[in-house]
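Exercise 3.2. Students should predict the tertiary structure of the chain below and write it as structure tokens, then compare their answer with the key that follows.

Predict this chain's 3D structure.
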Amino acid sequence: MLRRTRAPLFAFALAAFAAPALAAPAALTPEQVAELYLRVALAHDAEAGKRLNDYLKPAFDGKDAFDLAALAAAPKTLDESYATFADSVLSSLPKADPAQAKPAIIAAMKSQANAVANAQCKGVSNQQRPNDVRPGQTIATVTYRCQVPALKGGLEQLMADKGDPSSMSTQALLEGFATYRKALEQPAARRTVEGRIDLYGGDGQPWMTGSFAEAIDVVTDGMLNPPAAAPASAE
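Answer key:
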């Protein structure tokens, strides 16, 4: 399954709890903070990163929590990872013409990444509880919902009916990737994906987290995979 890289997010995640709050942060609800984290995780949104930097400065001794230059460089980093992934896919497709197939693979990956980046996400509620590990700190579990294209499976499922990869023709491959891109860019339907993110802070401290990149998997999996059907009730 095609994935978005989390590399530009790691530096912040490792430092999320590195320093105590020094001053009261600007007032934001846990839902609003979660929405900013989601924009950074899903779209490498520099404006959301800047707003979080301003909000989190009291917790980072006035310094930036996010490296905005790394966020700006994320598209190039992703392009490099797409090219590498395309090469690995082509190694199992000996009948496909690399000159035609590689650009198609990269284009499909970009379409999926754009669909994830364009997910419309909203924090809808939060539940707070004391943090037993750090007395005086509160944990707010924010529930968020995102609107995404409703696919009936990832690229692997779509290509499965094209035959054995070792004998797949260039034309069959190109048709499969074109169908996949259309499903992402011109979805026949959309679905709501729900996830949760834990924020730490409260009591005059800014809300923060180091696990926001998990939203990439939540949104991607929810977009590619239909929700499991509820079990039939016994009569």
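Discussion points: Residues 1-24, 230-235 have pLDDT under 50 and may be disordered. The two ends are 39 Å apart (CA to CA).
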